Every structure is written in structure tokens, then in C-alpha cells.
Amino acid sequence: MDRNKDMKDILRTAYAAFDIEAGSLAATAAALDAAEFEKAVIALASAERIGASGCGHSGIACRHFAHLMCCIDRPARFISPSEALHGAMGFVKQGDVMLLVSRGGKTDELLKILEVSKKNGATVITLTENPSSPLAEGADIVLRIAVTRECDRFNCQGTTSFAVTSAVFDALQTALIEYTGYTDERFAVIHPNGAVGKRLNAKTEEK
Q1: From 119's CA, which of 23, 32, 93, 154 has a CA 20 to 30 Å away?
Q2: b vs e for 19-50, b when ≥16 Cβ sit within 10 Å of the residue's Cβ?
Q3: How many helices (H) and strands (E) does the chain have?
């Protein structure tokens, strides 16, 4: 710990993270193209299966996305960029959706995954801040995010970008629930445990 810094200053910096992320969430909501978002919802709803890939914090967010999709009966899995280029892309077939996340849109591994996905006949959705990037230009659907800055003093840790990416994924799941008419009764079947599962199954039994 830097002994020259007062704890009040440290906490002020920490709490500023909430304002930074809130600003980027608002900026992303404004930057998202409604027509592209609609296309993404339709593509995900009609996909046989869904793959998601990203590096670093983006990859962790993709794991969250895959779980969100499974929770509403959309079969999905995270595909590690390293594993993808060593055989795992056999998962992606025609009729599937491949979602790729890169803030800058120039990640080498994802560009190769994009190429294989297109050859396999999958629809590619890209989540990026750079609509002119190679990843965006090669995708079928582009969801644009807006990151004012990361939270740390060096503006380099994937904090705000992770929060924004996760929020877009949450919005996609929310829209898919409405678009597909997904019911809490069905969710009770695939989520029987935990407080949520008990509450939903108790509700089902009352009917």
C-alpha cells in the first residue's frame, strides 16, 4: 500500500468505478443499433446451437453468455480461442450462431475463428467498440459497445468493458425470453435447485 495516500482518496477512486461503468452503460445503450440488435435476437432464437468466444475478460463474459443461453433452452457453449483453432471449431455447423467479442475487433485468434465460422455456414455476431475493424466487417451482425474508460488508474484492465459486455448479454437474454415466449414453468424444469428453483417449482405445484 502507498503510505503517502490517504484512505479517503483511495475509497474515492474506488467508488468512482460505479460512475465510470454507469456512464459506459448509458453510452452503450445509445450506441447499440436497434436493427442489428433485432437481427441478433432473431438469429439466436433460430440457431441450432450457439458458440461464443473471446480472450481474457471478454472470454469470461462469453462464459456468462453461454450460461444465460442455456438457462433459456438455447444450447450454447464457450469455445476457448486456443482450443477453437485446434479442432474445437468442429462444434460450429451451418444453422449455428458464433458470437465473437473483442473491444478493438482485431484479435488474431478471433479473426481465424471468424474465417472458420463462415466456412462452416454459421451466422457470426460480433460485439465490439470498433465497427470498422476486421472482425466487425467480416461479421453478419455487429453489436457496438461504448467504453468511456476502464476503472483502474492505468485505463488498461478489462473492467468497464466487461461490465458493458455482460450488460449487452443480459439484454439479449431478456429480449429472447420475450421473443420466444419462454416461461418460468420451463425454467423450473431445468433449474430445480437453489432458492429460485424452489420458488418456481412451488409456484408450479400450486397451479
Answers
A1: 32
A2: ebbeebbeebeebbeeebbebbbebbeebebb
A3: 9, 5
Q: Could you tell me the pTM of the whole model?
A: 0.92
Predicted local distance difference test score (pLDDT) of residue 202: 67
The per-residue pLDDT of the chain, averaged, comes to 93
In angstroms, rounded to a whole number, what is the distance separating the alpha carbons of residues 87 and 105?
23
Q: In sequence order, what are the residues at sequence separation of 6 or more whose Cβ sits closer than 8 angstroms to the Cβ of residue 37?
A: 143, 171, 172, 175
pLDDT tens per residue across span 89-124: 999 999 999 999 999 999 999 999 999 999 999 999
Say if residues 145 and 117 touch (Cβ distance below 8 Å).
no
Is the distance from CB of 133 to CB of 145 less than 8 angstroms? no
C-alpha cell at 141: 451482425
Specify the pairing of strand 123-128 against strand 97-101: parallel
pLDDT category at 2 given cuts 50, 70, 90 is: low
Whole-number Å distance between alpha carbons of 27 and 54: 22
What does the alpha-carbon distance between residue 28 and residue 143 come to, in Å, rounded to a whole number? Answer: 10
Proportion of the chain in helix, strand, coil states, percent, rounded to 5: 55, 10, 30
- In the block, which residue shows the cell 482485431? 106
Percent of the chain at pLDDT exceeding 90: 86
